[in-house]
Amino acid sequence: MSLINSVSLVGRLGQDPETRYFPSGSVLVKLSVAVDRQTSRDEQPDWFTCELWGKTAEVAANYTSKGSLIGVTGSLKLETWSDRNSGEQRTKPIIKVDRLQLLSAKPQDADSSASPSDDYYNGTDF
């Protein structure tokens, strides 16, 4: 039997991407994505931490910022650690992104030589 671990979200970044470069040449970007959840009275945001590696991470680092509308597809992983103070096991869900879609308009400070129809801003997957 084949089991499925697939997550798809569309939301806005709550802060600028957090980028880390490693001596090996690898790139890691962490994003905080807000997705509205309908309640009986109003909409409440759910916050998700997304992790991107490699070329996809570079695109996120260079072409997204706080408020950017993005779509992500990936898998759910659970990050676990021991709390320093209590010693209790803690768990945090992380979306490991395989595919990124940039859905916002191009930022004003982006490279002026690129046209408005640049692939980074027309829903192309990365």
Any descriptors?
single chain; OB fold (Dihydrolipoamide Acetyltransferase, E2P); 6 strands; 1 helix; mainly beta; 126 residues
The poorly predicted ranges are: 112-120
Predict the CATH topology: OB fold (Dihydrolipoamide Acetyltransferase, E2P)
Number of strands: 6
Helix proportion: under 10%
Overall morphology: globular
Class from helix and strand fractions = mainly beta
Write down the domain tally. 1
The N- and C-terminal alpha carbons lie at a distance of 30 Å
Computed CA radius of gyration, to the nearest angstrom: 16 Å
Describe the largest sheet.
5 strands, mixed, barrel
The strand line-up of the biggest sheet is 1-3-4-6-5
* The CATH C-level class name: Mainly Beta
Please provide a written account of the structure.
With 126 residues, the protein is mainly beta. It has one domain: Nucleic acid-binding proteins (OB fold (Dihydrolipoamide Acetyltransferase, E2P), Beta Barrel). Helix content is 8%, strand content 49%. It has one helix at residues 54-63, and strands at residues 7-13, 18-21, 27-38, 43-53, 69-82, 89-102. Strands 1-3-4-6-5 form a 5-stranded mixed β-barrel. The protein is globular. The model is unreliable at 112-120 (pLDDT under 50).
Secondary-structure blueprint of this entry?
Layout: E1 7-13, E2 18-21, E3 27-38, E4 43-53, H1 54-63, E5 69-82, E6 89-102
Parallel strand pairs: 4-6
Antiparallel strand pairs: 1-3, 1-5, 2-3, 3-4, 5-6
What's the gist of this structure?
The chain is mainly beta. 8% of the residues lie in helices and 49% in strands.
